[in-house]
Design brief:
There is one protein chain. By secondary structure, this protein is mainly α. Helix content is 72%, strand content 0%. Helix 1 packs antiparallel against helix 2 and helix 2 packs antiparallel against helix 3. The protein is elongated, with a radius of gyration of 20 Å.
Amino acid sequence: MNKDTPNTERYIAIARACLKAINDTAENAGNREQKIQAVYEAIDSAFQAEFAEYRQSVAIMGTVLERIASGELSQDKAIDLARKTLDQQPDSTRNALMH
């Protein structure tokens, strides 16, 4: 994996969560299915945490698009609203691939 890609930190965080879950389940008693479920939950939690910012940004942009699509804004106000929304977008969501 190229360390310069925007998602390197996300992949590393998810990998660490997976390894921690695997190590934790290896030390604990329990059946195989319980251990698999624990690793699955760790992976899911890590993904949810890493992509929360994307989901929030998408929700905000959806709201802005709905306002623009309503036709109630003048062209200048729609453009201004779109620019302000893009300017407030978190750095981690700018031009970053999701995978």
